Amino acid sequence: MSQPERILVIGHRNPDTDSVCSAIAYAELCRLQGRDNVFPGRTGHLNRQTEFVLDTLGQKPPALLTDVYPRLRDTVDDHPAVIDCDAPLMQALELMRQRDIRMLPVIDADRKPLGALVLKRLTEHVFLPREGRPIRQVLSSPSSIQSCLQARAVNLVDETLTEELDLFVGAMSVESFRKHLSGTNPRRIVVFTGDRRDIQQSAIELGVRLLVVTGGLTLEDDLVALASEQEVTILCTPFDTATSALLARMSTPVRYLADADIPRAYLDDRLDEIRKVLMRSTAPGVMVIDDEGRVCGVATKSNLLRPSSLKLILVDHNELSQAVPGADQVDILEVIDHHRLGNFHTDAPIRFINQPLGSTCSVVATLYRQAGIEPEFLVASLLLAGLLSDTVLLKSPTTTEVDRELVGWLEKCSGLEPFVFGRQMFEAGSALAAYPDIEALLTADFKEYEVEARRFGVGQVEVITFQEFDERREEILLGLEGLVRKRNLGLAGLLVTDIVQQNSQFVVRGDKDLIAAIGYPQLESGCFELKGVLSRKKQLMPHLLRAFKGN
User: Fold this and answer.
1) DSSP type of residue 43
2) CATH code for residues 6-70+309-429
3) What is the pLDDT of residue 2?
Protein backbone atom coordinates (compact mmCIF):
# COMPACT_ATOMS: atom_id res chain seq x y z
CA MET A 1 0.00 0.00 0.00
CA SER A 2 1.12 3.59 -0.57
CA GLN A 3 2.48 5.94 2.08
CA PRO A 4 -0.02 7.25 4.70
CA GLU A 5 -1.22 10.81 4.29
CA ARG A 6 0.99 13.43 5.94
CA ILE A 7 -0.14 17.06 6.24
CA LEU A 8 2.42 19.83 6.54
CA VAL A 9 1.60 23.29 7.94
CA ILE A 10 4.07 25.65 6.33
CA GLY A 11 4.69 29.35 5.89
CA HIS A 12 6.28 31.33 3.06
CA ARG A 13 9.74 30.92 1.56
CA ASN A 14 11.48 33.41 3.84
CA PRO A 15 10.11 32.39 7.22
CA ASP A 16 9.61 35.13 9.79
CA THR A 17 8.46 34.84 13.37
CA ASP A 18 4.76 35.07 12.51
CA SER A 19 4.88 32.35 9.84
CA VAL A 20 6.95 29.93 11.95
CA CYS A 21 4.99 30.44 15.18
CA SER A 22 1.61 30.23 13.44
CA ALA A 23 2.66 26.98 11.73
CA ILE A 24 3.63 25.39 15.04
CA ALA A 25 0.52 26.66 16.83
CA TYR A 26 -1.91 25.60 14.10
CA ALA A 27 -0.39 22.13 13.83
CA GLU A 28 -0.85 21.76 17.59
CA LEU A 29 -4.48 22.89 17.30
CA CYS A 30 -5.04 20.22 14.67
CA ARG A 31 -3.51 17.61 17.00
CA LEU A 32 -5.73 18.70 19.87
CA GLN A 33 -8.72 18.27 17.56
CA GLY A 34 -7.74 14.69 16.70
CA ARG A 35 -5.66 15.15 13.53
CA ASP A 36 -2.46 13.29 14.39
CA ASN A 37 -1.00 13.42 10.88
CA VAL A 38 -0.46 17.21 10.86
CA PHE A 39 3.06 18.62 11.41
CA PRO A 40 4.66 22.08 11.24
CA GLY A 41 7.35 22.87 8.67
CA ARG A 42 9.43 25.72 7.32
CA THR A 43 10.90 26.52 3.93
CA GLY A 44 14.06 28.37 4.84
CA HIS A 45 16.51 29.31 7.56
CA LEU A 46 15.29 31.12 10.64
CA ASN A 47 16.09 34.79 11.20
CA ARG A 48 17.68 35.87 14.45
CA GLN A 49 14.45 37.07 15.99
CA THR A 50 12.73 33.76 15.38
CA GLU A 51 15.74 31.84 16.67
CA PHE A 52 15.61 33.93 19.85
CA VAL A 53 11.91 33.18 20.33
CA LEU A 54 12.28 29.42 19.85
CA ASP A 55 15.44 29.19 21.97
CA THR A 56 13.89 31.23 24.78
CA LEU A 57 10.75 29.08 24.82
CA GLY A 58 12.59 25.77 24.39
CA GLN A 59 10.76 24.97 21.14
CA LYS A 60 12.53 22.95 18.45
CA PRO A 61 12.42 24.55 14.99
CA PRO A 62 9.97 22.97 12.53
CA ALA A 63 11.42 20.57 9.97
CA LEU A 64 13.15 22.29 7.05
CA LEU A 65 11.81 21.44 3.58
CA THR A 66 13.50 22.91 0.55
CA ASP A 67 10.68 21.66 -1.70
CA VAL A 68 7.57 19.46 -1.67
CA TYR A 69 7.75 18.11 -5.19
CA PRO A 70 6.01 14.71 -5.21
CA ARG A 71 8.63 12.00 -5.17
CA LEU A 72 8.57 8.28 -5.75
CA ARG A 73 8.66 7.55 -2.03
CA ASP A 74 5.22 9.23 -1.75
CA THR A 75 3.54 6.83 -4.18
CA VAL A 76 5.32 3.45 -4.23
CA ASP A 77 4.08 0.51 -2.19
CA ASP A 78 5.76 -0.26 1.12
CA HIS A 79 5.86 -4.00 0.37
CA PRO A 80 6.37 -4.46 -3.37
CA ALA A 81 6.06 -7.83 -5.02
CA VAL A 82 9.43 -9.26 -6.11
CA ILE A 83 10.58 -12.72 -7.13
CA ASP A 84 13.79 -14.66 -6.67
CA CYS A 85 15.78 -15.09 -9.84
CA ASP A 86 15.72 -18.93 -9.60
CA ALA A 87 11.93 -19.19 -9.27
CA PRO A 88 10.08 -20.68 -12.27
CA LEU A 89 8.01 -18.53 -14.58
CA MET A 90 4.80 -20.20 -13.39
CA GLN A 91 5.38 -18.91 -9.86
CA ALA A 92 5.95 -15.42 -11.22
CA LEU A 93 2.74 -15.49 -13.26
CA GLU A 94 0.75 -16.65 -10.25
CA LEU A 95 2.20 -13.85 -8.13
CA MET A 96 1.37 -11.29 -10.83
CA ARG A 97 -2.19 -12.63 -10.97
CA GLN A 98 -2.61 -12.48 -7.19
CA ARG A 99 -1.24 -8.93 -6.93
CA ASP A 100 -2.87 -7.75 -10.18
CA ILE A 101 0.40 -6.30 -11.48
CA ARG A 102 1.97 -6.10 -14.93
CA MET A 103 5.61 -5.82 -13.90
CA LEU A 104 7.60 -7.88 -11.40
CA PRO A 105 11.21 -7.20 -10.37
CA VAL A 106 13.58 -10.17 -10.43
CA ILE A 107 16.10 -10.06 -7.58
CA ASP A 108 19.21 -11.95 -6.51
CA ALA A 109 20.00 -13.19 -3.01
CA ASP A 110 20.97 -9.64 -1.93
CA ARG A 111 17.65 -8.22 -3.20
CA LYS A 112 19.45 -6.42 -6.00
CA PRO A 113 17.63 -6.31 -9.33
CA LEU A 114 18.57 -8.39 -12.36
CA GLY A 115 15.72 -6.87 -14.33
CA ALA A 116 11.96 -7.25 -14.35
CA LEU A 117 9.28 -9.43 -15.87
CA VAL A 118 6.71 -7.65 -18.04
CA LEU A 119 3.38 -9.49 -18.34
CA LYS A 120 2.81 -8.76 -22.04
CA ARG A 121 6.23 -10.06 -23.01
CA LEU A 122 5.82 -13.16 -20.82
CA THR A 123 2.56 -14.18 -22.46
CA GLU A 124 4.22 -13.81 -25.84
CA HIS A 125 7.08 -16.00 -24.62
CA VAL A 126 4.73 -18.76 -23.46
CA PHE A 127 2.15 -18.81 -26.23
CA LEU A 128 3.75 -17.43 -29.39
CA PRO A 129 6.48 -19.24 -31.35
CA ARG A 130 9.54 -17.17 -32.09
CA GLU A 131 11.81 -17.20 -35.08
CA GLY A 132 14.50 -19.84 -34.69
CA ARG A 133 12.91 -21.28 -31.54
CA PRO A 134 9.99 -23.78 -31.78
CA ILE A 135 7.16 -23.41 -29.32
CA ARG A 136 8.04 -26.84 -27.88
CA GLN A 137 11.44 -25.58 -26.75
CA VAL A 138 12.00 -24.44 -23.17
CA LEU A 139 15.00 -23.29 -21.16
CA SER A 140 14.70 -25.16 -17.89
CA SER A 141 16.06 -27.76 -15.48
CA PRO A 142 14.58 -30.96 -14.01
CA SER A 143 14.28 -29.34 -10.58
CA SER A 144 12.38 -26.35 -12.00
CA ILE A 145 10.04 -28.64 -13.95
CA GLN A 146 9.53 -30.73 -10.81
CA SER A 147 8.50 -27.58 -8.91
CA CYS A 148 5.96 -26.53 -11.54
CA LEU A 149 4.48 -30.04 -11.82
CA GLN A 150 4.38 -30.64 -8.06
CA ALA A 151 6.10 -33.86 -9.01
CA ARG A 152 7.70 -36.67 -7.02
CA ALA A 153 11.26 -37.46 -8.06
CA VAL A 154 11.93 -41.13 -8.84
CA ASN A 155 15.40 -40.65 -10.28
CA LEU A 156 17.38 -37.41 -10.50
CA VAL A 157 20.37 -36.65 -12.71
CA ASP A 158 22.00 -33.19 -12.75
CA GLU A 159 18.64 -31.84 -11.61
CA THR A 160 19.75 -28.21 -11.27
CA LEU A 161 21.41 -27.95 -14.68
CA THR A 162 19.51 -25.42 -16.80
CA GLU A 163 19.59 -26.10 -20.56
CA GLU A 164 17.52 -25.90 -23.74
CA LEU A 165 15.02 -28.76 -23.73
CA ASP A 166 12.45 -29.98 -26.27
CA LEU A 167 9.05 -31.12 -25.01
CA PHE A 168 7.40 -34.20 -26.56
CA VAL A 169 4.15 -35.97 -25.66
CA GLY A 170 4.18 -39.75 -25.97
CA ALA A 171 0.58 -40.15 -27.18
CA MET A 172 1.25 -42.37 -30.23
CA SER A 173 2.37 -45.87 -31.07
CA VAL A 174 5.89 -46.77 -30.04
CA GLU A 175 6.89 -47.05 -33.71
CA SER A 176 5.62 -43.55 -34.46
CA PHE A 177 7.23 -42.29 -31.26
CA ARG A 178 10.67 -43.64 -32.21
CA LYS A 179 10.29 -42.28 -35.72
CA HIS A 180 9.23 -38.88 -34.32
CA LEU A 181 12.35 -38.66 -32.18
CA SER A 182 14.75 -39.93 -34.82
CA GLY A 183 17.38 -37.35 -35.68
CA THR A 184 17.00 -35.51 -32.35
CA ASN A 185 19.46 -35.28 -29.49
CA PRO A 186 17.86 -37.46 -26.78
CA ARG A 187 19.76 -35.59 -24.06
CA ARG A 188 17.59 -32.55 -24.88
CA ILE A 189 14.28 -34.41 -24.82
CA VAL A 190 11.55 -34.24 -22.17
CA VAL A 191 8.83 -36.88 -22.69
CA PHE A 192 5.37 -36.71 -21.12
CA THR A 193 3.33 -39.91 -21.00
CA GLY A 194 0.88 -41.82 -18.85
CA ASP A 195 1.06 -45.50 -17.96
CA ARG A 196 2.14 -46.58 -21.47
CA ARG A 197 4.99 -48.96 -20.64
CA ASP A 198 6.16 -49.23 -24.23
CA ILE A 199 6.60 -45.44 -24.51
CA GLN A 200 8.22 -45.25 -21.07
CA GLN A 201 10.68 -48.02 -21.91
CA SER A 202 11.46 -46.65 -25.35
CA ALA A 203 12.18 -43.16 -23.92
CA ILE A 204 14.49 -44.60 -21.27
CA GLU A 205 16.31 -46.77 -23.80
CA LEU A 206 16.82 -43.72 -26.00
CA GLY A 207 18.40 -41.95 -23.00
CA VAL A 208 16.11 -38.90 -22.90
CA ARG A 209 16.94 -36.14 -20.47
CA LEU A 210 13.66 -36.38 -18.55
CA LEU A 211 10.66 -38.70 -18.49
CA VAL A 212 7.50 -37.32 -16.86
CA VAL A 213 4.88 -39.90 -15.89
CA THR A 214 1.53 -38.07 -15.68
CA GLY A 215 -1.86 -38.62 -14.06
CA GLY A 216 -0.48 -39.67 -10.68
CA LEU A 217 0.72 -42.96 -12.22
CA THR A 218 3.96 -44.78 -11.41
CA LEU A 219 6.84 -46.55 -13.13
CA GLU A 220 7.55 -50.25 -12.73
CA ASP A 221 10.64 -51.17 -10.75
CA ASP A 222 12.59 -52.62 -13.68
CA LEU A 223 12.13 -49.40 -15.65
CA VAL A 224 13.29 -47.39 -12.65
CA ALA A 225 16.44 -49.48 -12.55
CA LEU A 226 16.92 -49.03 -16.30
CA ALA A 227 16.50 -45.25 -15.93
CA SER A 228 19.22 -45.22 -13.31
CA GLU A 229 21.55 -47.08 -15.68
CA GLN A 230 20.72 -44.77 -18.58
CA GLU A 231 20.98 -41.62 -16.37
CA VAL A 232 17.43 -40.60 -17.20
CA THR A 233 15.61 -38.32 -14.74
CA ILE A 234 12.15 -39.63 -13.80
CA LEU A 235 9.34 -37.47 -12.35
CA CYS A 236 5.80 -38.52 -11.43
CA THR A 237 3.18 -35.74 -11.42
CA PRO A 238 -0.50 -35.71 -10.42
CA PHE A 239 -1.38 -33.54 -13.44
CA ASP A 240 -2.63 -34.99 -16.72
CA THR A 241 -0.41 -35.00 -19.79
CA ALA A 242 -1.79 -31.86 -21.45
CA THR A 243 -1.59 -29.83 -18.23
CA SER A 244 1.90 -31.14 -17.49
CA ALA A 245 3.20 -30.13 -20.91
CA LEU A 246 1.74 -26.63 -20.51
CA LEU A 247 3.14 -26.17 -17.01
CA ALA A 248 6.56 -27.36 -18.12
CA ARG A 249 6.60 -24.58 -20.68
CA MET A 250 6.39 -22.17 -17.74
CA SER A 251 9.28 -23.73 -15.80
CA THR A 252 12.03 -21.44 -17.10
CA PRO A 253 13.84 -19.76 -14.18
CA VAL A 254 12.92 -16.11 -14.32
CA ARG A 255 16.56 -14.95 -14.30
CA TYR A 256 16.62 -15.93 -17.99
CA LEU A 257 13.45 -13.97 -18.78
CA ALA A 258 14.11 -10.76 -16.87
CA ASP A 259 14.22 -7.64 -19.02
CA ALA A 260 17.41 -5.83 -18.01
CA ASP A 261 16.38 -2.66 -19.87
CA ILE A 262 13.61 -1.73 -17.43
CA PRO A 263 14.32 1.85 -16.20
CA ARG A 264 15.51 2.30 -12.63
CA ALA A 265 14.85 5.20 -10.29
CA TYR A 266 15.44 6.21 -6.68
CA LEU A 267 13.04 7.01 -3.85
CA ASP A 268 13.87 10.72 -3.90
CA ASP A 269 13.42 11.12 -7.66
CA ARG A 270 10.69 13.57 -8.58
CA LEU A 271 7.51 12.19 -10.14
CA ASP A 272 7.49 14.75 -12.93
CA GLU A 273 10.97 13.57 -13.97
CA ILE A 274 9.97 9.89 -13.88
CA ARG A 275 6.90 10.64 -16.01
CA LYS A 276 9.24 11.98 -18.69
CA VAL A 277 11.34 8.81 -18.48
CA LEU A 278 8.29 6.59 -18.99
CA MET A 279 7.00 8.69 -21.88
CA ARG A 280 10.21 7.77 -23.73
CA SER A 281 10.08 4.09 -22.69
CA THR A 282 7.95 1.13 -23.73
CA ALA A 283 8.21 -0.27 -20.20
CA PRO A 284 5.06 -0.09 -18.05
CA GLY A 285 7.01 1.30 -15.10
CA VAL A 286 10.30 1.74 -13.28
CA MET A 287 12.04 -0.28 -10.58
CA VAL A 288 12.65 1.87 -7.50
CA ILE A 289 16.05 1.33 -5.89
CA ASP A 290 17.23 2.35 -2.41
CA ASP A 291 20.64 3.80 -1.55
CA GLU A 292 22.11 0.32 -1.24
CA GLY A 293 20.98 -0.69 -4.71
CA ARG A 294 18.15 -2.97 -3.53
CA VAL A 295 14.64 -3.05 -4.94
CA CYS A 296 12.25 -1.22 -2.62
CA GLY A 297 9.32 -0.58 -4.93
CA VAL A 298 7.81 -0.41 -8.37
CA ALA A 299 6.27 2.67 -9.94
CA THR A 300 4.00 2.11 -12.91
CA LYS A 301 2.31 4.71 -15.03
CA SER A 302 -0.82 4.31 -12.91
CA ASN A 303 1.24 4.84 -9.72
CA LEU A 304 2.44 8.15 -11.08
CA LEU A 305 -1.15 9.36 -11.42
CA ARG A 306 -1.82 8.89 -7.70
CA PRO A 307 -1.94 12.09 -5.67
CA SER A 308 1.02 12.62 -3.37
CA SER A 309 0.59 11.44 0.21
CA LEU A 310 2.00 14.81 1.29
CA LYS A 311 -0.63 17.57 1.66
CA LEU A 312 -0.20 21.22 2.60
CA ILE A 313 -1.80 23.79 4.86
CA LEU A 314 -0.47 27.25 4.00
CA VAL A 315 -0.09 29.83 6.75
CA ASP A 316 0.86 33.52 6.47
CA HIS A 317 0.62 33.53 2.64
CA ASN A 318 -1.73 32.52 -0.15
CA GLU A 319 0.39 33.00 -3.27
CA LEU A 320 2.23 30.16 -4.99
CA SER A 321 5.08 32.53 -5.83
CA GLN A 322 5.79 32.72 -2.07
CA ALA A 323 5.06 29.07 -1.33
CA VAL A 324 7.54 26.23 -0.96
CA PRO A 325 8.70 24.98 -4.40
CA GLY A 326 6.46 22.17 -5.61
CA ALA A 327 3.35 23.44 -3.81
CA ASP A 328 1.54 23.59 -7.14
CA GLN A 329 1.99 19.82 -7.56
CA VAL A 330 0.44 18.68 -4.27
CA ASP A 331 -2.98 19.12 -2.69
CA ILE A 332 -3.42 22.29 -0.62
CA LEU A 333 -6.09 21.59 1.99
CA GLU A 334 -6.29 24.89 3.88
CA VAL A 335 -5.04 28.46 3.91
CA ILE A 336 -4.76 30.48 7.14
CA ASP A 337 -3.64 34.03 6.35
CA HIS A 338 -4.00 37.79 6.87
CA HIS A 339 -2.58 39.12 3.56
CA ARG A 340 -4.16 40.25 0.32
CA LEU A 341 -5.53 37.56 -2.01
CA GLY A 342 -3.09 36.35 -4.65
CA ASN A 343 -3.24 34.20 -7.78
CA PHE A 344 -4.25 31.02 -6.02
CA HIS A 345 -6.47 28.30 -7.55
CA THR A 346 -7.47 24.82 -6.42
CA ASP A 347 -9.23 21.90 -8.11
CA ALA A 348 -11.55 21.33 -5.15
CA PRO A 349 -13.06 23.47 -2.39
CA ILE A 350 -10.73 24.09 0.55
CA ARG A 351 -10.88 25.77 3.94
CA PHE A 352 -9.72 29.35 3.35
CA ILE A 353 -9.49 31.68 6.34
CA ASN A 354 -8.22 35.17 5.61
CA GLN A 355 -8.86 37.86 8.22
CA PRO A 356 -7.71 41.51 8.19
CA LEU A 357 -5.74 41.19 11.42
CA GLY A 358 -2.21 42.25 12.27
CA SER A 359 -0.71 38.75 12.12
CA THR A 360 -1.44 35.17 11.17
CA CYS A 361 -0.83 34.26 14.82
CA SER A 362 -3.82 36.51 15.60
CA VAL A 363 -5.93 34.48 13.17
CA VAL A 364 -4.77 31.19 14.71
CA ALA A 365 -5.43 32.52 18.21
CA THR A 366 -9.04 33.27 17.20
CA LEU A 367 -9.37 29.67 15.98
CA TYR A 368 -8.29 28.43 19.41
CA ARG A 369 -10.93 30.61 21.02
CA GLN A 370 -13.62 29.48 18.57
CA ALA A 371 -12.75 25.86 19.40
CA GLY A 372 -13.00 26.60 23.13
CA ILE A 373 -9.36 25.62 23.65
CA GLU A 374 -7.10 27.71 25.87
CA PRO A 375 -3.51 27.30 24.64
CA GLU A 376 -0.91 26.10 27.11
CA PHE A 377 2.16 28.18 27.97
CA LEU A 378 4.29 27.22 24.95
CA VAL A 379 1.65 27.74 22.27
CA ALA A 380 0.35 30.92 23.90
CA SER A 381 3.90 32.30 24.03
CA LEU A 382 4.51 31.43 20.35
CA LEU A 383 1.25 33.10 19.32
CA LEU A 384 2.14 36.17 21.36
CA ALA A 385 5.60 36.33 19.74
CA GLY A 386 4.22 36.16 16.19
CA LEU A 387 1.55 38.76 16.94
CA LEU A 388 4.01 41.23 18.49
CA SER A 389 6.53 40.67 15.68
CA ASP A 390 4.15 41.33 12.79
CA THR A 391 2.45 44.29 14.46
CA VAL A 392 5.81 45.78 15.62
CA LEU A 393 4.73 45.75 19.27
CA LEU A 394 1.22 46.89 18.24
CA LYS A 395 2.63 50.05 16.64
CA SER A 396 2.07 48.99 13.03
CA PRO A 397 -0.96 50.46 11.24
CA THR A 398 -2.00 46.89 10.51
CA THR A 399 -2.80 46.47 14.21
CA THR A 400 -6.50 46.03 14.99
CA GLU A 401 -8.54 46.11 18.19
CA VAL A 402 -8.77 42.33 17.94
CA ASP A 403 -4.95 42.12 18.04
CA ARG A 404 -4.80 44.30 21.15
CA GLU A 405 -7.46 42.26 22.88
CA LEU A 406 -5.68 39.02 21.94
CA VAL A 407 -2.44 40.27 23.50
CA GLY A 408 -4.22 40.49 26.85
CA TRP A 409 -5.64 36.99 26.47
CA LEU A 410 -2.27 35.51 25.43
CA GLU A 411 -0.53 37.36 28.26
CA LYS A 412 -2.84 35.61 30.72
CA CYS A 413 -2.29 32.19 29.06
CA SER A 414 1.49 32.51 28.80
CA GLY A 415 2.33 34.49 31.93
CA LEU A 416 4.70 36.66 29.88
CA GLU A 417 4.84 40.45 30.07
CA PRO A 418 4.16 41.23 26.37
CA PHE A 419 6.20 44.36 25.82
CA VAL A 420 9.22 43.23 27.81
CA PHE A 421 9.24 40.00 25.81
CA GLY A 422 8.58 41.90 22.57
CA ARG A 423 11.40 44.38 23.15
CA GLN A 424 13.78 41.46 23.79
CA MET A 425 12.66 39.88 20.53
CA PHE A 426 13.38 42.97 18.45
CA GLU A 427 16.67 43.63 20.16
CA ALA A 428 17.76 40.07 19.39
CA GLY A 429 16.77 40.39 15.75
CA SER A 430 17.77 43.96 15.01
CA ALA A 431 21.56 43.73 14.88
CA LEU A 432 22.53 43.92 11.21
CA ALA A 433 26.00 42.76 12.22
CA ALA A 434 24.44 39.37 12.92
CA TYR A 435 24.27 38.84 9.15
CA PRO A 436 27.88 38.78 7.93
CA ASP A 437 26.60 37.56 4.56
CA ILE A 438 24.79 40.44 2.86
CA GLU A 439 22.56 38.20 0.74
CA ALA A 440 21.37 36.42 3.90
CA LEU A 441 20.47 39.82 5.37
CA LEU A 442 18.55 40.94 2.29
CA THR A 443 16.64 37.68 1.81
CA ALA A 444 15.89 36.86 5.46
CA ASP A 445 12.40 38.36 4.98
CA PHE A 446 12.27 38.93 1.22
CA LYS A 447 9.06 38.63 -0.82
CA GLU A 448 8.63 38.85 -4.56
CA TYR A 449 5.69 40.50 -6.32
CA GLU A 450 4.50 40.97 -9.88
CA VAL A 451 2.64 43.83 -11.52
CA GLU A 452 1.95 43.96 -15.26
CA ALA A 453 4.55 41.22 -15.95
CA ARG A 454 7.22 43.13 -14.00
CA ARG A 455 8.73 41.25 -11.06
CA PHE A 456 10.23 43.01 -8.08
CA GLY A 457 11.18 42.05 -4.53
CA VAL A 458 11.14 43.80 -1.17
CA GLY A 459 12.79 42.68 2.07
CA GLN A 460 12.35 44.15 5.53
CA VAL A 461 14.50 44.39 8.63
CA GLU A 462 13.78 46.08 11.96
CA VAL A 463 16.45 48.02 13.83
CA ILE A 464 16.62 49.87 17.13
CA THR A 465 18.51 52.76 15.51
CA PHE A 466 19.39 53.71 11.92
CA GLN A 467 23.04 54.05 12.90
CA GLU A 468 23.78 50.35 12.39
CA PHE A 469 22.08 50.57 8.99
CA ASP A 470 24.13 53.61 7.95
CA GLU A 471 27.32 51.67 8.63
CA ARG A 472 26.37 49.03 6.04
CA ARG A 473 24.44 51.17 3.56
CA GLU A 474 26.89 50.83 0.63
CA GLU A 475 27.27 47.10 1.17
CA ILE A 476 23.48 46.72 1.16
CA LEU A 477 23.14 48.70 -2.08
CA LEU A 478 25.71 46.46 -3.80
CA GLY A 479 23.86 43.42 -2.48
CA LEU A 480 20.58 44.71 -3.95
CA GLU A 481 22.25 45.12 -7.34
CA GLY A 482 23.36 41.51 -7.12
CA LEU A 483 19.83 40.36 -6.29
CA VAL A 484 18.43 42.18 -9.31
CA ARG A 485 20.84 40.31 -11.60
CA LYS A 486 20.62 36.93 -9.86
CA ARG A 487 16.81 36.77 -9.71
CA ASN A 488 16.16 38.72 -12.90
CA LEU A 489 14.12 41.36 -11.08
CA GLY A 490 13.06 44.77 -12.24
CA LEU A 491 13.80 46.15 -8.78
CA ALA A 492 15.05 44.91 -5.41
CA GLY A 493 14.60 46.89 -2.19
CA LEU A 494 15.07 46.69 1.56
CA LEU A 495 12.69 48.40 3.98
CA VAL A 496 14.68 49.30 7.11
CA THR A 497 12.33 50.08 10.00
CA ASP A 498 13.33 51.85 13.21
CA ILE A 499 10.81 50.46 15.68
CA VAL A 500 11.69 53.06 18.31
CA GLN A 501 11.26 56.16 16.11
CA GLN A 502 8.50 54.41 14.09
CA ASN A 503 9.99 55.49 10.75
CA SER A 504 11.54 53.61 7.86
CA GLN A 505 14.06 54.06 5.07
CA PHE A 506 13.67 52.26 1.77
CA VAL A 507 16.82 51.51 -0.26
CA VAL A 508 16.48 50.18 -3.80
CA ARG A 509 18.37 49.23 -6.92
CA GLY A 510 17.05 48.33 -10.36
CA ASP A 511 15.11 49.81 -13.24
CA LYS A 512 15.31 53.61 -13.25
CA ASP A 513 11.67 53.99 -14.32
CA LEU A 514 10.49 51.92 -11.36
CA ILE A 515 12.74 53.83 -8.95
CA ALA A 516 11.41 57.13 -10.26
CA ALA A 517 7.83 55.94 -9.72
CA ILE A 518 8.34 55.22 -6.01
CA GLY A 519 7.40 58.80 -5.12
CA TYR A 520 8.63 59.05 -1.54
CA PRO A 521 11.14 61.80 -0.58
CA GLN A 522 14.71 60.80 -1.44
CA LEU A 523 17.46 61.21 1.11
CA GLU A 524 19.99 60.31 -1.57
CA SER A 525 20.07 58.31 -4.79
CA GLY A 526 18.15 55.07 -4.28
CA CYS A 527 17.33 55.80 -0.62
CA PHE A 528 13.86 57.04 0.36
CA GLU A 529 12.52 58.37 3.64
CA LEU A 530 9.19 56.84 4.72
CA LYS A 531 8.00 58.69 7.80
CA GLY A 532 5.43 56.81 9.83
CA VAL A 533 5.73 53.72 7.65
CA LEU A 534 6.16 50.49 9.62
CA SER A 535 4.25 47.93 7.56
CA ARG A 536 5.47 46.56 4.26
CA LYS A 537 2.16 44.82 3.68
CA LYS A 538 -0.32 47.55 4.53
CA GLN A 539 1.60 50.75 3.84
CA LEU A 540 4.46 50.18 1.40
CA MET A 541 3.16 47.46 -0.91
CA PRO A 542 -0.23 48.99 -1.81
CA HIS A 543 1.63 52.21 -2.71
CA LEU A 544 4.23 50.39 -4.87
CA LEU A 545 1.68 48.22 -6.66
CA ARG A 546 -0.24 51.34 -7.66
CA ALA A 547 2.89 53.31 -8.53
CA PHE A 548 4.40 50.60 -10.74
CA LYS A 549 1.33 50.14 -12.94
CA GLY A 550 2.09 51.43 -16.41
CA ASN A 551 5.88 51.52 -15.80
Assistant:
1) S
2) 3.90.1640.10
3) 54
